[in-house]
């Protein structure tokens, strides 16, 4: 079921200038819980999901969201990416599959293969040339275990390639701007359940990017390769829950320096997918404040 707002809660879509730290409110709603902003390749639109549907809004803001036609796709979750040429949006549906949908709408096509009822695809990244999708494959095993690994698949459909093959909890797989690395968050370096950190992988080489007391999720490399944006949860957080206080948006620069962009009430839905402006100067995110808190 799609998430809904709590009593007194709002969904607020912001863009932040990563140089000046200036935050600008683009859109706010007390009726629709929307999530996970993408930025269009022409820099003009932000795309969000809500209530199982997809919407867009001009970056400059508007009084309402414009719903996009998903062409018969089942209700979607908050994992979606836009093609580099701006013609297609790829979405993760609640039936466990990935679909390609023309923008601004039209006939959709399923991208993923049938890997059994216990396998679900969660989309997070697309290669710079638009040819390949990076997703997290979730396997629900008969013994009750839930296994997540990083996979890729051609965006036009084809054979899956498994990138990681272990039982560490992985999520948020996204390509580097040069296409050489896949960034992701994982618990593979942790001795405590839920303590995810940021990594990247190329072939058999895995590099750890963060190592601190906070729980770090969803690495988003800037298009110019200068920095990586991510969502940081308080110590001890399990997974990437919604409605958490002290959620921080951070930048990890090439020299390893960490910069704070925002502290907010949110988490799930705040910045799950690629949300950089094409010129790497701004990020889009969603906060979920509750009146009186």
Automatic annotation (TrEMBL):
Gene3D superfamilies per the UniProt record, alphabetical: TolB, C-terminal domain
InterPro entries: 6-blade_b-propeller_TolB-like, WD40
Similarity remark: Belongs to the TolB family.
Name listed for the protein in its UniProt record: PD40 domain-containing protein
Source organism of this protein record: Kribbella alba
Top-level taxonomy: Bacteria, Bacillati, Actinomycetota, Actinomycetes, Propionibacteriales
């Amino acid at each position: 079921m799609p998430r809904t707002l709590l009593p007194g809660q709002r969904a607020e879509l912001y863009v932040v200038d990563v140089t000046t730290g200036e935050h600008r409110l683009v859109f706010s709603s007390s009726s629709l819980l929307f999530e996970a902003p993408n930025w269009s390749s022409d820099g003009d639109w932000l795309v969000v999901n809500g209530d199982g549907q997809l919407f867009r809004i001009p970056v400059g803001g508007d009084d309402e969201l414009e719903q996009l036609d998903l062409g018969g796709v089942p209700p979607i979750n908050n994992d979606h990416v836009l093609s580099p040429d701006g013609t297609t949006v790829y979405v993760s549906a609640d039936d466990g599959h990935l679909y390609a949908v023309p923008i601004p709408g039209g006939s959709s096509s399923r991208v993923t293969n049938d890997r059994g009822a216990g396998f679900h695809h969660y989309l997070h990244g697309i290669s710079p040339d638009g040819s390949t999708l990076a997703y997290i494959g979730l396997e629900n095993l008969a013994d009750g275990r839930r296994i997540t690994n990083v996979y890729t698949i051609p965006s036009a459909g084809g054979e899956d390639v498994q990138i990681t093959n272990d039982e560490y909890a992985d999520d948020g797989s996204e390509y580097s701007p040069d296409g050489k690395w896949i960034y992701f968050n994982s618990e593979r370096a942790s001795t405590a359940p839920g303590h995810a950190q940021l990594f990247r992988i190329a072939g058999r080489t895995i590099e750890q990017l963060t190592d601190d007391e906070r729980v770090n999720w969803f690495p988003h490399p800037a298009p110019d390769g200068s920095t990586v944006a991510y969502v940081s949860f308080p110590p001890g957080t399990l997974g990437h829950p919604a409605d958490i206080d002290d959620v921080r948006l951070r930048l990890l620069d090439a020299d390893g320096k960490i910069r704070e962009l925002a502290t907010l009430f949110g988490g799930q839905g705040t910045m799950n997918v690629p949300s950089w402006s094409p010129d790497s100067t701004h990020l889009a995110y969603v906060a979920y404040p509750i009146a009186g808190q």
